[in-house]
Amino acid sequence: MATTSGRCESEMNLVLDIALTHVRSRLRQTFVGLMGVAMGVGFSVMMAALMEGSQRDFVTQLVDALPHITMSDERREPPRQPAEDHYQVVAFSGLSTMATRPGIKNPFAIIASLDSWLEGAVAPSVQARAVIRYASRDTAANVTGIDPKREAAVSKLPEQLRQGTLRDLYRSSNAIILGDRLAEKIGARVGNTIAVVSSTGRVLSCTVVALLHSGISQTDETQAFTLIKTAQILAGQTGIVNAMRIRVTDIMAAREIAGRIEAQTGYKSVSWQEANEDLLSALEIRNFIMYTVVGAILLVASFGTYNIISTITHEKTRDIAILKSLGFTERTVRSIFLLEALIIGIAGTLLGWILGYALCQALGTIEFKSPFMDATRLPMYYSPVHYALAGLVALTASAIAGYLPARKAASVHPVEIIRGAS
Amino acid sequence: MTIQLPVTTPLIELRHVTKTIGDGVETTLVRDISMKIEPGEFVAITGPSGSGKSSLLYLLGLLDVPTSGEVLMQGRPVPAGSEVERARLRLKLLGFVFQFHFLLVEFSALTNVMLPMRALGELSERAMKDRAMKLLASLGLEAHANKLPGQLSGGQRQRVAIARALANEPQVILADEPTGNLDSASSEQVLAVLRQLVDETKRSVVMVTHDLALAARADRHVRIVDGRLIG
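Above: the input entities. Below: the structure tokens describing the complete assembly.
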């Protein structure tokens, strides 16, 4: 005598046999349904790889282009006046504005302190606005004074130099690195001497020692780098350091680390996430749209499965009646048709994974040109999560698509069918 | 001195069974019928078209549930609401043969015969196959075991259907016009098989037919007119 588990196994084998026979005997219909699921899964995988690839590429470029955290000599809230602490002051009036930036107090003590706990690197810098003039052509620029020895640890600047190196900043007095588009705009080349005019009217003659190409138009068109000392002269504030450029090992922890730095120093520290908050929230919306579209593709594919299982159920009504007359329960009949939908779903998913991978490979070879960035190949991101998610949704959709006709099949009254056929 | 006759429990018993269909306009298919199917008897049910003979057979075979009255299987009432219980009883105790063979066309004769055994799941695959082959051989179909129903003649298909009905060694075979679609030679073969079942294996057969000559070969003849038993 068979055991209960043996009985279950026998029933499962029987259900599987009948389901496979039904699916095999309708090859054309099965193929169409299977291709529907495969297309859905394949295009979903491709969409997800493309969307996440472009997002990651965008974020990487964003993160690489700037320091992960920038600490400036500003404060989130104005510091309290001593009078506020000593007297019941309601309001101040007649305060004069400062002509110069306050700068970060004791910058090297702060660097030493941050170096003691921060996993990453810190570099001092001086930010100044200036107009660059060459051959009667003027253009505004952001001049950043840097320490070449520390800069390599906080930015990709050394790798982004097209001509020259960071060390060339030491080569001549008042050496300057220009963004390549900025240099092109004024017609300057490496070796040329250009005039840099500060906001206070101070004019410095600087020698172009290198050209920068970050791949981001805004940076390449407006950015210039000098030694800290040169930028301090330009700002008219000797000894000032008004920004710290910080790179961290864990870029996703930049926001928390920035908060800690701000709490420690009192200076405004902006992480890359905070600096690009609007862009990141736009990416979140984009992700939501992506998953909605992917879900819709798979939903459409599931209609194909529904159609096939419905057709098979309709064609097999007589068989269902006879199986029930033999003693098959509603649950067993339901299992047969549900399994047929799952067979189509599983086979379609497997085929869809292959299709999705092939589509990703093909798309990855297409070169994409943007007016704002360098020509690049479409960034594809390969993740097992995309495959698992598309497969899960496809199988769930197939199961639901199969369940409805399966339920209908199970409720067939054998007598009505047998009478009709007799 | 009184002689104590052995009392047997009927295999199937209907007690005041009525079956009505239709929501608005009701039609009564079977009216207040009480009858018993005893072990080892061959019962023929006859009657004109639409008299309710097939409906009566479906009630006896637990394919349908009565509107009122009670159905007992081996002396125990069958709960009308339990689809699973009725399916289990059909699988274990009853075998059906219909006018149309109702074989699954994608499966071979052997697989069709094995279906009820596999659904019951009490035998090993090997034992199921052996029993199915024996049944087919006993019906002269050994050479056709691996053929699809489409490759068999009408009489052969009906004999495969009988083999399938016998697969789980049921107590009762319920046959609804089993020779209705067959020529006289095939009809004779099928009837001979049913008769043999009763005589040799002591199983019961309930056969619905409109052919009085066939009915005459049964042990008991029951006539139904307008849903009521007559005689």
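Note for the figure: Helices of chain B lie at 53-60, 83-93, 109-120, 125-138, 154-165, 184-201, 212-215.
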